[in-house]
Design a protein that fits this description.
It contains 21 helices and no strands. It is mainly alpha-helical. It has one domain: Sodium/glucose cotransporter.
Amino acid sequence: MQRLAAIDICIVLLYLIGLLIAGYLLGKKQKTDKDYFLGGRKLKWPMVGISMVMSDIGALEIVGIAGLAYTSGLSMANYDWIGCIPAMIVAAFIFIPFYWRSGVFTIPEYLGRRYNQTVRSLVAVFWGLFMIANLGIFLWTSAKTLNILVGWPIYASILATAFVIGFYTFAGGLRAVVFTDTIQYFVLLLGSVIIIILAFIKVGGISGLVSTVEEIGGPSRKEFFHLVLPADTPHPLSWSAVLFGLAFVLSPAYWIGNQAIVQRNLGTPSERDAKKSVLFGSFLKLSIPFLVVVPGLVGFALFPNLAKGDDVYPTMLRELLPPGLAGLVFAGFLAALMSSADSYLNSASTLWTMDIYKQYIKPDASGEHLFKVGKSLTLLFIIMAVLLAPMTNRFPGVFSLFITLLSIIQGPIFALLLLGMLWKRANGQGAVAGLIFGVTTSSTLFWIKNGIFKTEDPALYVAWWSFTTALLTTIIVSLLTRPKPAESLKGLVYTTKA
């Protein structure tokens, strides 16, 4: 292992062994689907709030956001301050309590009750495929980082990371995910603070950072320290893209409609605990840009000639840390690498077990049987992710790839959730038409994006237009077809009681 002293290697190995033991111990008494997928509905709200944040700031955000901050500047902080906190507050008071009261395991399950089983199946397939693809992205991101930082071969790194994540998620289910995420948050926090302090010392503080960027950046860096960018900029985070695509669509869609995020809220013992978990997570989100955006800004001043922005964070880890600290910070980085992957792995297993297997293959399956199926699917999906991981290298940046995949499906699904909860007249025919037409719109816009959008990365604009298309299509088709009986909507629409 290059550049790591013996003490660093010991710290990293002890950390990984600890995760494996924790997953095994937490899974020993699990026997049913509720135990495995919802932690027996006994998860503590502070741990759930931390786990939500860790799932969101995994490898993609640490590597990807820092990489985009390296190339684009401070505006990347919008992904957290605008793209998370407002939507999390809305989710805490309206949507999450609604999910919890309904007693569902998954978001597609709610949509199936609200609309019909076709909608449930389509959404489960879309989300299931998205999560498996993202597992591959997570593994590739971790492998690239390990290759830069310690010199491990990329494919060996993929297998090693997949083994650790797969083992404790397979053994412990959602309870292991939440428990390990909580530990990993504090390890990551300490590691990030250390590397930021060392980086600022080397660059000469804030004034040294600004002067260095101005000196080496040239005209292309005139907006490097701007949080709000003009609408006509080619940058993907212009104010119009942030407002319409991020704040109005992708942000609430992510925190309200993402199974990997919402699932842990459903595992709390009460509706009040579910609310508190999201609000606590939104409070923690205030500090995240300092942990993931600032390293990208300082990294540009220190290492301005990197081939890809995604290399900045692992390069800083490798070049700035002395022996002893390197192992601790590296363990924190491993925490970020694994925190998103374990959540998506567990949630993908939940979706395919509850919304596909139980619905179409064995409707009368017992909780014990579904528990075994879920564990088997966890193993299958981690193997699929290993095979898909190398395909990530074909794209310019991991976070851009993640947002692109997300924007294809999130807008239309959010339109269905919004109408389903707030408008009694929305029906199954309208939802199916809206979902299909919305996903078709987003896919088509990405296919013909040249000449339509000023930016080369139009994911936020695509999210807005696919959401708008799905919303209008669902409304029109619903008005032209028969409404659902009022008695079938009890407890499923915000204005009705169960």
